[in-house]
Amino acid sequence: MTVDVDGLRRARALEAYEAIPSLDHHGELTRLILAEVSLLTEKYRHVRRHEVPHIQEIAGLLDVLWQEVEMELAVPAYPVS
């Protein structure tokens, strides 16, 4: 039995991006693009023998995106009295 590792990672990335409500008004295409960028970045993040231009920059931007998402999700939607 062969496992489609990229397919599994893609599904996980899409699921994670679906949890970001602010992406709703941008449509499914935005989530698909973000998922593909995430997969490519993860594949090449630690590769040193073949430097891929801008991977470190993209990785940093994705890290910042997820930090912001996690901070937003940590804040209650309604003030607690």
Describe this structure in words.
With 81 residues, the protein is mainly α. The longest helix has 20 residues, at 55-74. The N and C termini lie far apart (54 Å). Helix 1 (5-18) packs across helix 2 (28-44) and helix 2 crosses helix 3 (55-74). It has three helices and no strands.
Quick synopsis:
With 81 residues, the protein is mainly alpha-helical. It has three helices and no strands.
Structural class determined from secondary elements: mainly alpha
Percent helix = 55-70%
Mean pLDDT, to the nearest integer, reads 77
Beta-strand fraction estimate: under 5%
Q: What is the count of β-strands?
A: 0
- Element-level helix/strand string: HHH
**Major sheet summary line:** none
Number of helices: 3
Give the end-to-end Cα distance, rounded to a whole number of Å: 54 Å
Work out the radius of gyration. Answer: 15 Å
Globally, the shape reads globular
Poorly predicted regions are none
